Amino acid sequence: HVAAALNAKAKVAMSRFEPNSSINYDQLRSNIDIVRKRLNRPLTLSEKIVYGHLDDPAGQEIVRGRTYLRLRPDRVAMQDATAQMAMLQFISSGLPKVAVPSTIHCDHLIEAQIGGAQDLQRAKEINQEVYKFLASAGAKYGVGFWKPGSGIIHQIILENYAYPGVMLIGTDSHTPNGGGLGSICIGVGGADAVDVMAGIPWELKCPNVIGVKLTGTLSGWTSPKDVILKVAGILTVKGGTGAIVEYHGPGVDSISCTGMATICNMGAEIGATTSVFPYNHRMRTYLEKTGRGEIAAVANENQDLLVPDSGCHYDQIIEINLSELKPHINGPFTPDLAHPVSDIGSVAEKNGWPLEVKVGLIGSCTNSSYEDMGRAASLAKQALDKGLKCKAQFTVTPGSEQIRATIERDGYAKLLRDVGGVVLANACGPCIGQWDRRDVKKGEKNTIVTSFNRNFTARNDANPATHAFVTSPEIVTALAIAGTLKFNPETDFLTAPNGEKFKLEPPTGDELPARDFDPGQDTYQHPPADGSGLRVDVNPQSNRLQLLEPFDKWNGKDLEDLQVLIKVKGKCTTDHISAAGPWLKFRGHLDNISNNLLIGAVNIENDAVNKIRNILTGEFGGVPDVARYYKVRASSFHSFTMFHGTLLWKTNLKKQGLLPLTFSNPADYDKIRPDDKISIVGLKSFAPGKPLKAIIKHSDGSSETIELNHTFNETQIEWFQAGSALNKMKELQK
């Protein structure tokens, strides 16, 4: 077993490393050998780690893109917004303690408003009830608790829990960040986390594998962020769906461990299951610097498990020469609209996008490493040496308390403040819409540039007119200093107050601090050995937390005459279905969070957002309002079926008793009208691989029948019939 070593600089953190938070490389090797012998072919790295965690490596059917794998992840991580529902579900399971090492991370509920210390204190006061619930539930059920101010979940995982060969699931889209340390880290829904915490094998559709071969060397203004910005431009927001993206090739060694994490983090924006890099000396150095030298030593002994086999097969290959890669900036309104930084000014002028950069924002889980902050600070120093400060507003979000304390000690934070920056709390903040922005009015057209991962409409500041672009922290800093998208730092000059023209030199920064990391304040609460006597209280009058009631079982009949609630136009991501921002405070209250249902989706009937026709009254209203009206007044509206052209998060929907279906013929989407009623037939003979039929009933009396596909296996059909996976789990306990 590989046990996590103690960071000598942070003895207070000793308890965060649970004795069972280890990986048995011998078991991993045994499972890989069994699978390799069965498949009789070389394996990719992601296959080694995924198949190495199979519940039954000898008997599991393995076909990429087709079969469902039953896996045994090593641990679970939950951010505080999704942890609320996950812990409520775990409580309702009746189990006394989690079966695998698990942690809760308080990062989503802190709103950026004034500055780090003030915003953190305000969040503690506003969210006291939720933090108390999560801390007490963690203590009772054996879950570690990272307090508010500790940092962003993905940075904490990288610093403490990720390591080569581990399989971790996290209740956040950007959990793949851990792939930068050779881990398979996958973002899941809360119901999946509950399964793993309950000791039940976790199901994952066997991923395809996309290989990205890197050659050449990063240098100058080009950064690791540019790799994923380029890949996003190639694959688009759904090109990675159902696949793990595996980076390999000689160019890998020119990228730091935290740079690899940046690339894996934003893989979520191409729909990838996760992303991963092979183990190398960069990872070894990072492990040693973060107090895990013992893991590095054993990883070295087992390196053959932590790299792809020679001659392995990828379903698709993309090649990128890092020596030729130019700095990129993607957006607005989508993270796959890629532009070289050298072109963005002219492209913006052509499209009528605002050229003035109102705010530059660096940090977030994607780009808040020591190296990121150092490179941004090197540019700040150049500007300050010439008497310049940022023309745009400028914010800095440290990824963790350890990063915050270390950049304060080493002078980076001072440089970033002196150039005009405001250092925010160690939290998600503006990246997820937790930003009390006041410099522009809602509806005012403006441009911001960020080092974040997503830039969908209104995501950062709730203003649909904000044109948000994602790029590297270095480019954000340069554009914030210049104040315009028309500035290309590779070729253009800035003007100092004395009239001197000068160019910024390419950014520089140490990969890791020369001295050890400063751990900062102790923000971790380890659960007691026995929490059975502890109490977790949920106030029945609370508008933040609500104990769960079981969903109804399937009644054994087809679903008849279901009214279409909304037909969506264009993209329908998780941001459109249930955006974050101010709604995060209701993530532990199922009834209240339902008021956020599809309010960001565009109604195909009128091109409006959150404005749909109530078929019973003829009036227009918000999506949740109309849904509630239907629920109270018409029995035929009690069941809902979700249709999507490309449907992600299917397993989590299935676990809630929903019926996610896709069109056998995508063109059939056009046959459905906003005022139709739909019957789903064939449920009495519901079986794996057997399509269902939908009878579309139009308001003019005509009808059409179409075929719908599903990906349910036998176990998942039992979830549907029981009303939810949790209901089925309880049935099995009886």
Short account of what is shown:
This is Aconitate hydratase, mitochondrial. With 734 residues, this protein is an alpha/beta fold.
Which terms summarize this structure?
734 residues; iron; single chain; 4Fe-4S; 22 helices; six-stranded mixed beta sheet; disordered N terminus; lyase; metal-binding; alpha/beta
* Rg estimate, integer Å: 25 Å
Question: Total number of β-strand segments?
Answer: 32
Intertermini distance: 35 Å
Question: Biggest sheet, open or closed, and with what strands and sense?
Answer: 6 strands, mixed
Across the major sheet, the strand order is: 6-5-2-3-4-21
Strand content: 15-25%
Into which percent range does the helicity of residues fall?
Answer: 25-40%
Shape label: globular
Task: Work out the helix count.
Answer: 22
Calculate the mean pLDDT score and round it: 92
Q: What structural category arises from helix and sheet content?
A: alpha/beta
Low-confidence parts lasting 5 or more residues at pLDDT below 50? 1-15, 17-22, 644-648
Keywords: 4Fe-4S, Iron, Iron-sulfur, Lyase, Metal-binding, Mitochondrion, Transit peptide, Tricarboxylic acid cycle
Catalytic activity: citrate = D-threo-isocitrate
Function: Catalyzes the isomerization of citrate to isocitrate via cis-aconitate.
Protein name: Aconitate hydratase, mitochondrial
